[in-house]
Amino acid sequence: MRILVAEDEKALNRILVKQFTKLGYSVDSCFDGESVFDFLAGATYDAIVLDVMMPKKDGFTVLTEMRQQRINTPVIFLTAKTEISDRVHGLDLGANDYLIKPFSFEELAARVRMITRDSTGNSTNTFTVGDLTVDIKSREVKRAGKRIELSAREYSILEALIRNAGTVMSREKIESRCGITITRAVQT
């Protein structure tokens, strides 16, 4: 799964990238609101963690423009703005969730799982296709009840495919979702 972290506090940005990467996510990050659109032009994201108070474009403006452009990527606002009116405003603009700083990373990760689960129409962290089961939280894969060990790259591709079961995905779309490049094997 691919996440974009848009947070102008450099230390917090680095921590979020590190923690999400440890959980197996492919993570891109930026430090201002204008850069969000540069990243959205080049990749497809499963979720965006978006600070409200950023330079160049604040998070509220970024989300408004995203929704106007019909970019429906799930968004969690991560902000120090604590007023109820700010939370209501952010949610009314189309945010999927709103988390106030300081926060627990475990809670943020759970909220990311929740909004990405909601966007797929799945009500749990477990996806099943035939006898294949993928638990997104534990990253456990089973086929006919037997556990399968996968590399991080293999897991990333499988997760992208199972989240989009029933949809044909081009190589480019898989690469964008997973943050990888798929090379073709050459037979000699």
Question: Would you kindly provide a written description of the structure presented here, covering whatever features stand out?
Answer:
The protein folds into two domains: 2-120, Response regulator (Rossmann fold), CATH 3.40.50.2300; 126-178, Winged helix-like DNA-binding domain superfamily/Winged helix DNA-binding domain (Arc Repressor Mutant, subunit A, Orthogonal Bundle), CATH 1.10.10. It has 188 residues and is α/β, with parallel strands linked by helices. The strands form two sheets. It has a five-stranded parallel β-sheet, with helices on both faces. Strands 6-7-8-9 form a four-stranded antiparallel β-sheet, with helices on one face. The longest helix is centred in the middle third of the chain and has 16 residues, at 105-120. It has seven helices and nine strands, in the order βαβαβαβαβαββββαα. The chain is 42% helix and 21% strand.
Brief overview:
42% of the residues lie in helices and 21% in strands. The chain is an alpha/beta fold. It folds into 2 domains: 2-120, Rossmann fold (3-Layer(aba) Sandwich); 126-178, Winged helix-like DNA-binding domain superfamily/Winged helix DNA-binding domain (Arc Repressor Mutant, subunit A, Orthogonal Bundle).
Low-confidence stretches: none
Q: What is the alpha-carbon Rg in Å?
A: 17 Å
- The helix content, as a percent range, equals 40-55%
User: What is the structural class?
Assistant: alpha/beta
How many helical elements?
7
Strand order of the largest sheet: 2-1-3-4-5
CATH-defined architecture of the largest domain: 3-Layer(aba) Sandwich
Can you tell me the overall shape? Answer: globular
